[in-house]
Amino acid sequence: MTDIIAKRNYWLLSACILSFFLTWSFCFSIYPIWLNQAIGLNGSETGLVFSINAITALFVMPCYGFLQDKLGLRKNLLWFVGLMLLLSGPFFIFVYTPLLMHSIYLGALVGGFFCSATFFAGVGAVETYIERVGRTTGFEFGKARMWGSVGWAIATFFTGQIFNVSVSLNFILASCCALIFLTSLLFVKISEDSAKQIEINQKANALSLRDALLLFQQRKFWAFAIWVIGVSCVYGVYDQQFAVYFAAQFASQAEGNAMYGYLNSFQVFLEAGGMFLAPFIVNKIGAKNGLLLSGAIMALRIIGSGYAADPISISAMKLLHAAELPIMLIAIFKYITATFDARLSATIYIVGFQFMGQVAASGLSILVGMLYDQIGFAQSYKIIGLVVAFFVIVSMFVLTSDKPKPIKNAVTT
C-alpha cells in the first residue's frame, strides 16, 4: 500500500511542478520583451523593475520558508501559491499592465510582491514540499523535479511565437496551466495512517521562531553559507550576462541570439534527464561530495568560458549547466536533511540557499559588471572561475560529511 501511495504522490506532485514551471515560463520567458515591446519601458526602466522584483522577494522568502516548516505536510501554503498561479493571467493583463503604464514605481512594487509570492518564493515552497513528501512516502525528489525542467522547456519553446500572435495569450495559458496544479494538488494524499500524519504535523507545530533563529548560531549553517555565497552565488552572477558573451561568438548578434535560444531549450531538456540521474549519483557519493562535484563543474564551466574561442567550445560550456544544476539541487536537499533539523528544511533551503544567495548576488552583480567593463568577459571569467575553485576547496574542509563512519569490529577475548 505504501508503494501505491508513493507512486500516486509522485505522479500528482510531478504534475504540480510541471504545471508550476509551465505557468512561470509562460509569464517570464518573454518578460523582458513584454516590458519593452508591450509596456514600452527602456533598458533602465526594465532594470528598475528587475531590481524591485529582487528586493520584494527578499521580504517574502523568509516568511515562506518558516511558514512551510510550520505547516509540515499540510498543503495550505501550496493552495495559496496555486491560487496566485491561477490569478497570474488576469493580474498581468488587467492589473500589472495598466499600473506600469500609469506609474512604473507603483506597478513595479505591486508586481514585485505578486511575482515574489507566486514565483520567486513560491518555487521554494513547492520544491521543499515535494522533497518532504518524497522523503516521507518514498520517492526521490529529483525524479519529480525533472518535470519542472520539462515544463519550462516546453513553454519557452512556444512563448516567442505566441507573443507574436497576441501579447496576452501567454498569460491566459499560464492561468490555464494553474488549473492542472490545483487539480493535482487536490488528490495528493500523504498517508493512510492518519496517526503518522498527525505526528509529523505536531512536530511541525512545535517549531518556534526561536528554533529558526538559532540556525544562525550554528557553525555548520555558516559553513553551508560559505558554499552558497562563494560557489553557487558567484556562479549565478557569472551566468547573468553569459548570453551577451555567447552571442558575441557568432558572426552576427541575430545569429547568436537565435543559437542561444535553441541551445538553451536543448540544455533544459538535458537538465531534465540529469534530474532523473542525479539522485543515483548523489546517493553514491554523498551529499557533501555532491555539492563539491557541482561546484567543480561550475568552476570548470566558468574558467572554460574564458578560454572558449569559437561557437562549438562556448556551446559545450553552456551545456555543462545541464550536469551541474541537477547534482546541485539534489545534493542541497540531501545535505540539509542529513546535517540539520529536518523540520527546518524549508527555512534552510529558502533562507540559507535562495535568500542568502540573492542578497550576495545583489552586491556581486555590480562588482562583476565593472570587471566586465574593465578587462572584458574572457579575462573576468578566468578570475571568477578561480574564485569559485577556491571556495570549493574551502568547502571541502568546512562542510559536514554525511558519509557514515565505518564501524570498527569489536575485539573479543
Detail the topology: elements first, then pairings.
Elements: H1 2-28, H2 31-38, H3 43-71, H4 76-102, H5 104-120, H6 122-137, H7 141-165, H8 169-186, H9 194-205, H10 209-213, H11 219-240, H12 242-247, H13 253-285, H14 287-307, H15 311-319, H16 321-339, H17 345-375, H18 377-398
Average pLDDT metric: 83
The geometry reads as globular
Q: Which spans have pLDDT < 50 for at least 5 consecutive residues?
A: 406-413
Radius of gyration: 22 Å
Helical percentage: over 70%
Please give the alpha-carbon distance between the first and last residues.
Answer: 47 Å
Largest sheet: none
Structural class: mainly alpha
- Helix-strand string: HHHHHHHHHHHHHHHHHH
Q: Total number of helical segments?
A: 18
DSSP, total strands: 0
Q: Tell me the β content.
A: under 5%
From the structure above, extract its key features:
single chain, disordered C terminus, 413 residues, mainly alpha
Describe this structure in words.
The chain is an all-alpha fold and 413 residues long. The protein contains 18 helices and no strands. Helix 7 packs antiparallel against helix 13 and helix 13 runs antiparallel to helix 14. The protein starts with a helix and ends in a 15-residue tail after the last helix. The C terminus is likely disordered.
Structure, briefly:
84% of the residues lie in helices and 0% in strands. The protein is built from 18 helices and no strands.
